[in-house]
Amino acid sequence: MNFFIVANAAQQRELIRGNKMDNVPDVSFFEQMDQIDDWSKMDALMYLLDDLKDVIDDLKDVRLQKVQQVPVIINSVTDTLKSLQVPSNFSRINGWPGFLERTLCETASGDSVMAGEFFTTLGWRVVFVKDEPGLVSARVISMIINEAYFALGENISSKEEINLAMKLGTNYPMGPFEWEEKIGTENICQLLQKLSTTDDRYTLAPELLTKYRKILQA
Q1: How many CA atoms lie less than 13 Å away from 149 in the CB half-sphere?
Q2: Three-state DSSP class for residue 121
Q3: Half-sphere exposure of 93 (CA within 13 A, CB side)
Q4: How confident is the model at residue 110 (pLDDT cuts 50, 70, 90)?
Q5: Helices then strands (H, E): number in the chain?
Q6: Alpha helices in the chain (DSSP H)
Q7: For the whole model, what pTM was predicted?
């Protein structure tokens, strides 16, 4: 299988660090999609860059007939397949920093049979979830980070103490503020804002909202 992966250097390192490339016979890494000069050789495509909305039309372009015939995996945590209006051969995964090296790949797919056969060929462990914003793990971790900001705003404890308590009390590898730093405040807030349109539980904590607004202003 000729597996084309469009990803930045950090994402490539995560995939390799997670041992996800061990059983892949022919994988080619690209840092931009326009570096692919021969689409006819491609049997599967994974697009992990953050500019997904800017290239989605290119990925669906009828001129790229090959793209419509093979599994296409995109990094889309907040936007669903339905909202992106992509063909059924598309699947979405969580490509946030820290998630690509996980041994289990959380996937929402328009064609679970095609995607399942693809992941089986790779030897990856996969679980199919509903096509909802945040999938599952990103939604849970974002809510934990948000709750940590509520606690911080109410002067319950400091960031350092909250991080330590979560690691010792729940055996998490990182505390909520450490997760935020790794994932990125913008990623977290954009997902929470999307989720809060249908569920008030995800309304941004005042401290987190203030931080997000400062980032946007900067």
Answers
A1: 25
A2: helix
A3: 29
A4: very high
A5: 9, 7
A6: 9-17, 52-60, 81-84, 112-122, 137-153, 159-170, 176-183, 185-196, 206-217
A7: 0.91
